[in-house]
Request: fold
Amino acid sequence: MRLSIAWIRGLVIAASMLPMVRLVLWPVLDWAGANPVEFVTRSSGTWTLVFLLLALSVSPLRRLTGAGWLMRLRRPLGLASFAYALAHLATWVWLEHWFEIAPMIGDVLKRPFITAGFAALVLLIPLALTSTDAMVRRLGRRWSTLHQLVYAAAVLAVLHYWWHKAGKADVTEPALYALALALLLGWRLVARLRR
Amino acid sequence: MLIRTHDASTPPVSDITPREVWRNRRQLLAAAGGTALGAALPALASTAAQASSAIMQGGDPKAQKLAATASKLSTPERATPYKVVTTYNNFYEFGTEKDDPVKHAHRLRTRPWSVRVEGEVAKPRSFDIEELLTLAPLEERIYRMRCVEGWSMVIPWIGYPLAELIRRVEPTSKARYVEFVTLADPKQMNGLAIPVISWPYMEALRLDEAMHPLTLFTVGLYGEVLPNQNGAPVRLVVPWKYGFKSAKSLVTIRFVEKQPNTSWMRSSPEEYGFYSNVNPEVSHPRWSQATERRLGEDGFMQRRRPTLMMNGYADQVGSLYAGMDLRRNF
Reply:
């Protein structure tokens, strides 16, 4: 049984990196369409959200199914989300702004959708840094308190996507992510109130 | 009005090539056959080859070819590859993704087609597509195209000045603005099912903008009739404004007295103004307009290039906006 859980975990980690391979390889192979930078930006952003929502699904799924081993997937899913968030940030810093600091600061301060996205990423940094076993042990109960930041990060990330799309008059996709997040957070709220 | 050409030292091919040679250049090239041409007909070869290089070759063997003369108003910049021009654009009537138009626009029927010209004109009437194709001599105009989203292309359009059409309907003294309405047929256009914007798509220009020699009534690109996804069979091209001002697949042109409330102004008034002239100094609320990415040319690992005032056409059109606050009239 232990072996098979390790296998599942390994598979999940390997699968979580497949989109990363795609988003690096497709532009190199010229398969990323007419605007490869846009392709990388969108792909990395999408997968950040997907893995963040998957990580947030672990606890509810464990409660609903009673399968405790699911918890072993939470960290790799969360770290995968962080990896895509870093790729998203790197695309912006490098391919959009070419490391020019002033326009980046201007973007973060003046454009609400970038402010929200940037804040979400900043909130994820301490969570990734404290994701090791050693840090979990060291922080004890404070670890759980700290990691509730993920809820704020997820709300900001969905808001970032929503505001980015809003002016283009098409919020179908962000609405789907918002709905999924609302269900995941709503489930937690109900569970807490019942206790 | 002063029209500056970008490359005044080189006369356009249409000036130095005999009209008959020009008209028959494809047949001449085909008959002589590739490289043999150079040896057999040196004098003719050089003029014919020059002429043919002025008209960009398209990528669709089935598309109807259009003969057009090169224009002095063309930019000497390298044209964006045909494949990029025809596979990446916004045409929300077919969906909001950049590759939706090329995927879905095959359902658009461009024959029969007519454009209704109405409103404040002495001679309102409908123009059949065949008449529109031959109303005035076709020119190839290689223009920069800057999308409000921050990407740009260089496109060899084919058409004639919109002023040619406008003259024929004789606007009245009340005509101060011109509306351009795109087809909205849910049977042909899958994107209309979602109300992303107020359909039918309507854009508008001030009459003097519409009459400007740069404003092109466009019927083709890359030497062929317009591909459906690029706004077939007739569209507007206004090169100094953001791309969305250049309405596609036109069915109605309406002359009006008051400034129209265009589709984008209704949808998002704080983001899209009536003028929407390309202006690197006035940011979009969600991003800077100071730079752009030239698709198909600026590689994956290249910096964005600076965006030019009025998309580089300020010398020709700046006088239209003399004394206006471009920050307020964005």
Notes: Confidence is low (pLDDT under 50) at residues 4-53 of chain B. The longest strand of chain B covers residues 151-161. The CA atoms of residues 59 and 163 of chain B lie 30 Å apart. Chain B touches chain A through 27 residues (CB under 8 Å).
